[in-house]
Design brief:
heterodimer; A: alpha/beta; Rossmann fold; six-stranded parallel sheet; four-stranded mixed sheet; 48% helix; B: alpha/beta; 12 strands
Chain lengths: 748, 178
């Protein structure tokens, strides 16, 4: 079953040992990304340009590889197209053997990690030296990279100082970052001088000239190439772009997206064999310019290793656009807490690693960490080539589900509650969450019993053991009257269609309908106070919960049901107002994958976040005085307490930010007179059902820690628009957390 | 090259902690002497009227390179918006001279400044295709954050100085401004 003590323990250990260093570094990179991309004149246009170059290159890849091969050979180099890692390693070993090399100096290359070429060469007795400082530290420590750009991000300065002291026993052990760097520079400098072969990766390769581009900061790649007469570059086939001119947008984006640098110190554009003399460090009395550059050799090893098959796979193909910048890792709440040793596979880490590991290694490797993508989607706007990384994670999860599906004895007992479209035998925790809409309806019908039962000790123990729901989480209480029933009982719309400025359907999402009915009522009051004719029809669930579990077929049926149920309203020109941001994100983003394009476009264009909609009404002449102003009685969302606070602490929902509706709440709250402090934490950590799972409860709380630090001691009203953000903030800050509409809706 | 490129370029270099000295081509030796430490090695410059001071060894041995504090080289191009300089590999050893030293002194003609990154790759494209050039776009000193803090001089130079040679046209513009 899903609850896995080992997994929770492993994550706990990583959070304790590596979490602080990873969090500090990745959050720093992520903040740097916002600053650096903010300095660009047109960031979005640059990303679109980069994306279209990659689309074109992958489409024409076989032709470009042929052209590249001709160019490299014309320049005097050799190209070897390797089918897989073993094939690539065999070739590299031959080159090293023919050069009769004792030592290979290497600059950082993820592709070489994928090949495990160091091990292959070591088995021939060759000394392989990683010259990137971070990689060298890991080589000494015999550890794997925890980040694709900054591989030793999990190691503190103190840990590195200890490692050097232990390994080298120096007279005057280096301690400061400066001392450690100079110590490494000196040692590595000597090792590079004695190396015979230099091995690098390549960030991009131009087919029109055979030029390869390397993005570095330390200068070790430059030394590796210059100081040795034999250069071996290993690169995935997907690194090829048509022309040198097309390097430009990637150079502008890669450093900004990754570590927040406008550009890294060195962008090497080499058309090898390179045109420099080879310094003769062992007979150093001769002129440097002795013509020895004529003897240089160059070998380009282009690696397939599953990539050409990924190119034929409609869902995984986008992975090949990845430029390994690490933005998806740095912007990810879970990655910030655990790093790549948990959120990663054999080689790659972060959100996009699911695509790489599924394509290169296989589904079983991707399955080990794929759960850690919660679909919060904060990596989507961060990705410089616009890869829909959460979708790749969802698809891979679906494939894993289907692969693992075996019939289970318990299934029959839950069939009525979990009427999904997936094959039987799916993990029960997955199915319970995936069918939350049905579960919630049942819970609401039997609310007094269901609520008492749900939080009762013995039931929680069973839920934890059987379905993996952590007993430390308070379960949301079901309302005894649903939002739809309340609306009917009050006699429907209070503003007639004839008197209305606009007509809107308020979407009764599962959480609002059965759990948090107050925010639904507040929405109706707010819209009606601004003259909107409101309807609250009974509508099907959006499919968000099943999609989050990788149950794509079930989500697809939900999308079709929602689309057809809303069809007559859309025909009548009504707007669709959505309270739960994760459902609005479904309509706008994910339905693009689940519905036919026309149906998706029609729904996406008519749908609004409730705060976005209020903002639009106010912009179009709506009277803010008709809303509830701060300082007035009948406090936030409740007629019971007279809350007159005017300070608000607001956490925008992750998916709301991605679809561009995170800021409207701030604008509306400020418009009516609130003082709003907005958090910049990417995701609260709850992420729908994720934080309820026993495996991930502690991780979820750790991801939310910055929010607790920011809002926990605040005397402001804490607001968040997502239901699960609200539950998480309640747990972190004590609660009660309100939906922003509850602060601006006029009193009952 | 325009006056605004020069302004942008020097401002970027300032952000990067790179010192800039500006003057006419015939003052090159003087400006380089002021920027260079000792011992210094160099690659011959290919700029009319510009020369290097005598103490810069322009046909160094590998031992000279090892012992050098400063390496002086020309740059083929500067990118104003980024404060980058294009170091082009050649048979005289521009690449090692710019790399295996503590301080890199770069001589660049103002005329060779381009506004932005796409201009640099528009320049590189034909040269890469026709001449197979190897160019490093270097922006500030070598840097690493792998040892628990930002440090300059990880493998390459710890410091970079730029000597920017004015052209007739830019001096003329400055004169009329005064």
């Amino acid at each position: 079953m899903s609850s896995d003590v080992d997994r929770a323990a492993r994550l706990r250990e990583l959070m304790t040992t590596e979490g602080d260093a990873v969090a500090e570094n990745t959050r720093g990179f992520n903040a740097g990304r916002y600053e650096s991309t903010g300095r660009l004149d047109d960031y979005e246009a640059l990303k679109a340009e980069a994306r279209s170059i990659k689309e074109d290159a992958i489409e024409r890849l076989p032709e470009l590889v042929d052209r590249l091969t001709e160019q490299v050979e014309a320049n005097g180099g050799t190209v070897y197209l390797a089918d897989d890692a073993a094939d690539a390693n065999r070739y590299v070993r031959e080159v090293v053997d023919e050069r009769d090399a004792d030592r290979v100096a290497k600059s950082k290359s993820m592709t070489s990690e994928e090949l495990e070429v160091n091990e292959a060469l070591a088995s021939d007795g060759v000394d392989v030296v990683e010259t990137d400082l971070g990689e060298w530290v890991l080589q000494l420590a015999e550890e794997a990279p925890s980040h694709i750009v900054a591989p030793a991000i999990h190691k503190s300065r103190e840990a590195i100082a200890e490692l050097f002291a232990e390994r080298f026993d120096p007279d005057d052990p280096p301690e400061t970052a400066e001392e450690l760097t100079m110590f490494a520079r000196e040692r590595l400098g000597e090792l590079i001088e004695d190396a015979d072969v230099g091995m690098t990766g390549a960030n991009f390769i131009a087919a029109d000239s055979g030029t390869m581009l390397l993005v570095t900061s330390e200068g070790n790649a430059r030394k590796t190439v210059t100081a040795t007469d034999t250069h071996v570059a290993v690169a995935g086939v997907e690194k090829v772009v048509p022309t040198v001119e097309e390097f430009s947008p990637f150079v502008e984006l890669i450093g900004r997206s990754g570590t927040g640098q406008d550009v890294t110190s060195y962008i090497s554009t080499l058309t090898p064999p390179v045109d420099s003399p080879v310094p003769k460090f062992d007979s150093d009395g001769n002129s440097l310019a002795d013509g020895s550059g004529d003897d240089r050799e160059f070998h380009l090893v282009l690696v397939d290793n599953g990539r050409m098959a990924m190119r034929e796979d409609d869902e995984l193909k986008e992975t090949l656009y990845c430029i390994r910048c690490s933005a998806c890792a740095n912007s990810c709440g879970n990655f910030q807490s655990v790093g790549g040793h948990a959120f990663g596979g054999e080689t790659y880490s972060g959100g996009i690693a699911t695509g790489w590991e599924a394509g290169v290694e296989g589904l079983d490797v991707a399955a080990e960490f794929n759960d850690l993508c919660t679909g919060c989607s904060r990596c989507v706007p961060a990705c410089p080539v616009g890869i829909d990384i959460p979708w790749i994670n969802t698809v891979v999860r679906d494939r894993i589900n289907r692969g693992e599906a075996e019939s289970s004895q318990l299934d029959w007992a839950f069939e009525e509650l979990v009427p999904d479209e997936e094959p039987g035998g799916l993990d029960l925790g997955t199915r319970l969450v995936g069918n939350y809409a049905t579960l919630a309806e049942w819970g609401s019908r039997t609310a007094p019993i269901a609520n008492r039962l749900a939080n009762a000790g013995p039931v929680r123990a069973v839920l934890e053991r059987v379905a993996g729901i952590d007993r430390r989480r308070e379960l949301p209480a079901f309302a005894d009257e649903s939002f739809v029933d309340w609306f009917d009982a009050r006699g429907g719309p209070a503003v007639s269609a004839a008197a209305a400025t606009r007509e809107a359907v308020v979407y009764p999402d599962t959480a609002t309908n059965y759990v948090d009915v107050d925010r639904g009522k507040a929405t109706v009051r707010a819209l009606e106070s601004l003259g909107v004719h409101v309807r609250v029809p009974d509508l099907p669930g959006s499919g968000r919960p099943p999609l989050s579990q990788g149950m794509v077929s079930t989500a697809e049926s939900a999308a079709e049901n929602v689309s057809s149920a809303l069809s007559s309203h859309l025909d009548a020109g009504r707007d669709v107002v959505v309270i739960e941001p994760s459902d609005l994100a479904m309509f706008r983003r994910e339905y693009g994958r689940l519905l036919d394009p026309d149906a998706h476009e029609r729904l996406a264009e008519a749908s609004y976040d409730v705060m976005e909609y209020l903002f639009g009404l106010l912009e179009n002449g709506g009277d803010p005085d008709a809303l509830r102003l701060p300082g007035t009685a009948d406090g936030p969302g409740s007629s019971e307490t007279a809350d007159t606070r005017s300070g608000v602490a607001y956490h925008p929902h992750c998916q709301a930010r991605t679809i561009g509706v995170g800021e409207h709440a701030t604008a509306v709250l400020e418009r009516v007179g609130y003082d709003v402090r907005v958090s910049d934490t990417e995701c609260c950590g709850m992420a729908g059902s994720f934080g309820y799972k026993a495996d991930y409860y502690e991780l979820s709380m750790d991801v939310g820690e910055p929010l607790r630090e920011e809002f926990g001691e605040s005397d402001r009203v804490v607001v968040a628009s997502g239901t699960s953000c609200g539950e998480q903030l309640d747990a972190l800050c004590g609660g009660p957390t309100r939906h922003p509409v509850e602060l601006v809706a006029p009193p009952k | 090259m325009s006056l605004s490129d020069t302004t942008t370029f020097t401002r970027r270099l300032d952000d990067l902690g790179v010192r800039v000295a500006t003057g006419p081509a015939d003052a090159c030796a003087e400006l380089v002497a002021a920027a260079a430490g000792e011992p210094a090695v160099g690659a011959p410059l290919d700029v009319p009227e510009a020369s290097l001071p005598d103490h810069v060894e322009t046909d160094p041995t590998t031992a000279d390179l090892r012992a050098a504090h400063t390496g002086v080289t020309g740059a083929s191009l500067g990118i104003a918006e980024y404060g980058s300089v294009a170091i082009e590999s050649d048979r005289t050893g521009t690449e090692p001279v710019s790399l295996f030293v503590d301080r890199h002194v770069v001589v660049l003609r103002e005329d060779d400044l381009v506004p932005d990154m796409p201009d640099a790759f528009a320049w590189l494209g034909p040269r890469a295709r026709d001449e197979s050039v190897d160019v490093v776009f270097a922006t500030g000193p070598s840097a690493t954050a792998d040892m628990g803090g930002l440090v300059h001089g990880a493998h390459g130079p710890k410091e970079v100085h730029v000597v920017l040679l004015e052209t007739e046209s830019s001096r003329h513009v400055e004169d009329t401004d005064e």
